């Protein structure tokens, strides 16, 4: 549960402008608007939200051939391409391939051709261009430590890859 910006009680209401600040009542929202400085912060957050929405709807920039998309390093014999996504063309050097954000390609449902649905959920699984996290089905391969009780009872079609298998129950498929 979220807490009120003014009195720190449970806050079921969210500001309709910035979509961030939470309040327990319209009274606390008015106090924060007039006395707490939310009026200015709300307008700034709205501009950020608009910018993020525009960025989200733009196609990612095309990677430069022969260069790391994460850090723009030119590939050489010593600084080689360590990761190359067959779907979006994202390429990484050895340093960027193990980085939590630069090592994530532009694909929304996979990373370098590996579908997220087949992986254990991690907080950094998502689109490297927009930052949108993967929230789809999960049916990780063996070796991730799930028990039989962690899976749904009946197999069904995965919403990501289309494979018909038993999925991890949603409560166990949250990123960690």
Automatic annotation (TrEMBL):
Residue ranges annotated for the MYND-type domain, each copy included:
4-42
One Gene Ontology molecular-function label = zinc ion binding
Q: Which UniProt keywords apply?
A: Metal-binding, Zinc, Zinc-finger
Would the keyword Zinc turn up in this protein's UniProt record? yes
Keyword Ribonucleoprotein attached: no
Q: What PROSITE patterns does its record include?
A: ZF_MYND_1, ZF_MYND_2
At the top level, the lineage of the source is: Eukaryota
What is the protein name for this chain?
Answer: MYND-type domain-containing protein
The organism encoding this protein is Phlebiopsis gigantea (strain 11061_1 CR5-6)
């Amino acid at each position: 549960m979220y807490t009120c910006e003014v009195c720190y009680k449970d806050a079921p209401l969210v500001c309709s402008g910035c979509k961030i600040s939470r309040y327990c009542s319209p009274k606390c929202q008015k106090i924060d608007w007039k006395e707490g400085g939310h009026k200015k912060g709300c307008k700034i957050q709205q501009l950020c939200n608009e910018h993020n929405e525009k960025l989200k709807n733009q196609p990612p920039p095309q990677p430069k051939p022969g260069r790391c998309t994460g850090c723009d390093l030119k590939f050489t014999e010593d600084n080689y391409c360590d990761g190359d996504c067959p779907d979006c063309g994202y390429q990484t050097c050895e340093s960027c391939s193990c980085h939590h954000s630069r090592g994530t390609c532009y694909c929304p449902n996979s990373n370098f051709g590996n579908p997220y649905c087949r992986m254990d959920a991690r907080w950094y699984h998502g689109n490297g261009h927009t930052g949108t996290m993967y929230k789809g089905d999960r049916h990780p391969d063996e070796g991730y430590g799930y028990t039989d009780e962690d899976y749904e009872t009946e197999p069904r079609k995965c919403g990501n890859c289309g494979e018909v298998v038993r999925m991890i129950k949603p409560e166990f498929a949250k990123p960690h």
